């Protein structure tokens, strides 16, 4: 018995594999097209909202009429230095709008503990914990070991400067 297939059987096998590959490619393209269609053509009215500025994914988004601005900002993914002080995130979207998210120029951090003046201070973006040694005025019993960290401060972070332990 011969282990080789005749030419016409190879041809049939090739046609079957080609047909299956064509079906696979077609279904893949159809599912992408269906996803795009459903994103832009649902039964409710979709409103285009353009977002740019301090976001990771600038662009145009389509949201159902009556959605809050917060929903589009979640899709656009806010940058860490986004300033939302002038943005009404509860506002309902009724018509096409463009939203610009400004970038913070400074961060506010809150200092307490062994410092001369406690409370909020403004620091430049990308300020590190160790940079506070140059900015703050400390009391005599301040333990500055906690200020050796080189990590970046975060907006609205609260820092407690400890006192030296008395032993």
- Strand % is 15-25%
**Fraction of residues in helix:** 25-40%
- Poorly predicted regions are none
Shape: elongated
Give the tally of β-strands: 6
Intertermini distance: 95 Å
> What is the structural class?
alpha/beta
Q: Number of helical segments?
A: 3
Spell out the helices and strands N to C: HEEHEEEHE
With strands numbered from the N-terminus, the spatial order across the biggest sheet is 2-1-3
Oligomer: single chain
Mean pLDDT: 88
- Based on CA atoms alone, the radius of gyration comes out at 30 Å
Q: How many domain regions?
A: 3
What can you see in these coordinates?
The structure is a single chain. The protein has 167 residues and is of the alpha/beta class. It folds into three domains: 1-41; 46-101; 106-161. Helix content is 28%, strand content 22%. Strands 2-1-3 form a three-stranded mixed beta sheet, covered by helices on one side. It has a three-stranded mixed beta sheet with strand order 5-4-6, with no helix packed on it. A hairpin with a 5-residue loop joins strand 4 (106-113) and strand 5.
Short characterization:
With 167 residues, the chain is α/β, with parallel strands linked by helices. The chain has 3 helices and 6 strands.
Question: Helices and strands in order, then pairings?
Answer:
Blueprint: H1 7-40, E1 46-53, E2 59-64, H2 69-76, E3 97-101, E4 106-113, E5 119-124, H3 132-135, E6 158-161
Parallel strand pairs: 1-3, 4-6
Antiparallel strand pairs: 1-2, 4-5
